[in-house]
Amino acid sequence: MFYSYNINILNKKQSIHNFMYWKNFYFFLSTICILLSILSIGIFGFNWSIDFTGGFLLKVHCDELIEIDKILDISNSIGLKNIHISHFGSIHDVIIRSSYLPNISILDFSHKILSVFYRYSQSKSQITCSEYIGPSADNNLIKTLFLSLILAFLFLSIYIVLRFSWSLSIGILLSLLHDVLLTLGCISIFRIEMNSIIIVSLLSIIGYSLNDSIVVSDRIRENIKIFEYLSFLDVLNLSLTQVYSRTLITSATTFSVAAILYYFGNEIIKSFSFTMMLGIFVGTLSSIYVSSSLSFQCYKIINNDKKRS
Length: 309
Known about the structure:
By secondary structure, the chain is α+β, with helices and mostly antiparallel strands. 66% of the residues lie in helices and 13% in strands. It contains nine helices and eight strands. The two termini are 32 Å apart.
């Protein structure tokens, strides 16, 4: 996959992978993926959970093993459609979520759910928790969410700009936006329920991608000082060659943990771990190719294509 070449002036018997040889291909691929993500978000939007739309949330315990498919079939037969059920804690406990139903109170909804469980099994069933999330809570949550993301990105931007040069800083920040946008696009395409857990995973992805990009950019900054006689392009390829194995090993380890959580976890954990796997995959490619390629383009613009002094 790598196109290698030698930097003779280094006087070392090692090949330098020419990562920047593929920059145009990854620019094209990233542009296509971003356009598809924007298109999906614009047309289909997100599968918002009741955390954002408002609705009912019940926790139910049943002495008999709860088979979710059968509960859903019975619910549909009595007119309770578009409800989401997932196990939590044990196979005898479930969380039931439903969007707001007109002319139905939380008490009426609870009675309907108990009737569903009564038809499912004669064993004792009880509601251990019931919540109603109204429109006002929904609006406050969305405002708080976007304010938190904006403030987080603002402080990250200040830190990155103070630590790195303009070309590296712009590359890091744009690659972060690239990672989040592609992950959001995948969430929209695969119709993953957008809930508070997914927001946590998005923040985790931002932190993970930022860490990878900073490791790469820090090595680039060090090599710029050490190898003053090399062009900026050669410094990028040298730095990426030095750190890409570390990046791949770290990403593979984290990805395997997320995959294990996805395989063994419940529905809530599955959505979190699947989003994390998407973010890790996108963030790894971004830290190696997208961030460095953007930094190279920014360097050319800032320095008017002149050789690094």
